[in-house]
Amino acid sequence: MSTQHRTKLRIQTGDLDGLLGLGLNNLIQVLLIISLCRGVLGFPDSLLFGIILPATGISLLLGNLIYAQQARRLGQAEQRGDCTALPYGVNTVSLFAFVFLVMLPAKLSALDAGLSEAEAVQRSWQVGLIACLGSGVIETLGAFVAQHLRRWLPRAALLSTLAGIALGYIALGFLLRTYANPLICLTSLSVILLGYLARVRWPLPTGLLALLLGMVLAWGSGLISPDAASWTQAARAIGVHLPSLQLSALWQSRFDLIPWMGVILPMGLFNLIGSLQNLESAAAAGDTYPTRGSLMVDGCGTLTAAALGSCFPTTLYIGHPGFKALGARSAYSWMNGVVMAVGCLFGLFGVVTVLIPVEAGLAILLYIGLAMASQAFASTSERHGPAVVLGMLPGVAGWGALMLKAGIRAGGAAGDPKLFGPQLLTQLATADIWAAGVFALEQGQIITAMLLSAWLVYAIESRFLAAACCSAMAALLAWFGVIHAWQFSPGDTVMHLGWGTGRAWAEGYAAITVIVLLARWRQQTDH
Question: Among candidates 448, 452, 338, which has minimal Cα distance to 384?
Fold first, then answer.
């Protein structure tokens, strides 16, 4: 290798730009983990900063180091110095899905069963671990069959399901928070949208400018004015937090894998196929990486996170061509891994949360939600547009159910069976709010979205036998309560598994199957 080529492998100016972009994205994810674990799940800092974040830091370091080395090897093999490492970090959609669809229901269920707050938190964390482990297993094993899965699953079914989660739990959720703090959030949002979509060139990188502007406005408007207690809490988190294997916690939650497969399996498949698409994007930009090896690194990163105590899967990020255009090569990747690992292992992000309010980074997350929802339409055939919309609706309904039940709990009615029971459905129906349907769509919403969207794609393409298979599968899953079947618990609505628990919905899907088969028969007789 020439001296000139070796030089190209060193840190370049573009690597610093890439570090800023990828590091800012990862920073927002970590701040989001802290915010959701503290605010939604009620996790103590000892668990958050002592176990979850150190495990997250190691998983980010491991993946980034390997992908950086992969880029260097590609450059050596092809004798060029412009290879850009694959961007890698915490999976945003899985983060929201696991928090709101797995860990929060697990905690509420534990509280309903009479467990203490501390026991419910432990239960929620352990269920999150097994969900993360399951996702990692799916990603790792799926690396051997990813291409076949992608050919079998319609793109509209995959992207619309992700878009539904992104639209509800990310875009709508943060849009409400944006309009609760309009000066700060709308200002940052305008910078993000003008920079990323209108291609306005700001004096600073778009994401950094939006974050800094949000911080200034948050401090200046008095939205944040940390007191001594906040600084003391942040200071306590500082220290060396070395991760350790959490095999005991995983073993204790081993029986929780099956009940949550309705979330774990689809999210693992989404992560797998999304990473495959990002590899294709990298190849189109000139960097062709081995499919199986790259996907296995992604899966092993998630397995590492789960084994060490993190509930949040990792993934390949979209945007490799953008990092390549910045001039980022291999160094930006390992530098990002080192920076994130140092922050997680030494508890520095506790201080960052005091300095940077979540509102300052909301615009970036809202943009991610918009981008994911719009991608579902941009990356699919125009004919499949109705299937995309249909696949988005269960996710939006699930978010609506979350909001409805949160309001009921905040009003103190959830613990009273006279107020939170069948009569609630009747009262809401008189106001044209069909809560029974909302709660039915909430259960198994990811599987429902995939099957409905795939069904309509196949129907549009006149592949009626494939469409009948989708509706028949939905009927089978509904009969056993994997999707739609639900029941009231003291503070929540929960899945109702069992023989015939979802009979009403199973009958509906069975009727659809019959009608589709009749349509196929009509098609054959017409020809």
Answer: 452
